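Task 17 of the worksheet. Students: predict the tertiary structure of the chain below and write it out as structure tokens. Keep your answer in the requested format; marks are given for formatting as well as content.
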Amino acid sequence: MPEQLNVEVAHRLSEQEKADRQKHRWEEVIEILEVVVLALAAIATAWSGYQAARGDGQQSVLYSDASVDRGRANTAATLGQQRLAADGAMFSAWLEARAAKDTQLQAILVRRFSPEYRAAFTAWLATEPFTNPDAPPGPGYLPEYHNPGMEQAEKLNEHAAALEREGTEARHTAEEYVRATVLFALVLFLVAVGQRFRLRGVRIATIALALGLFAYGLHDLGTLPRL
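Model answer:
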């Protein structure tokens, strides 16, 4: 009887030791997995936060450059309008000189036209405006007329609009990176909370949820442009 009792006790102790080893083994696997997820999530959080900061900085730079272009466009447009007003005033004076048959004054006024307006004026005269009812009302209405200031203003405004669009896209991308940062922070939180549990099912469910969110966050990072 004592020998049988000893064998039974040894058998139970062996089974208990085996169960403890299995329990310890799954805990080690979960702990290793948690450490790996924590490390990767921390790196992803830092990366997405860095990209979000770069996006905000890029937006500020682009908006600032667009503002400079808008200011330069306003200056160019003002100068272009002043140039057109001066040409228009001399054209009106030329019409008065023509009505007074003052050819000398007409020649002086034509020489004072801007080069672009003078070329359009020549093209306007070729339409026989004083006998042709379909002729344009003045040189400024012809396609031959070009105003450098107004054209420069248009190009600057187009460039400013393009910069503003890029700035808006940079801001949107930065917001997406902020969202990814929050998602990775949630992964870190879940792993940290899961480590407090000793129940296998709860701990496995927590790490599984963290892994799912981490995979989703990585997918988001893969679709976002680098800044």
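Marker's comment: The mean pLDDT is 85. The two ends are 79 Å apart (CA to CA).
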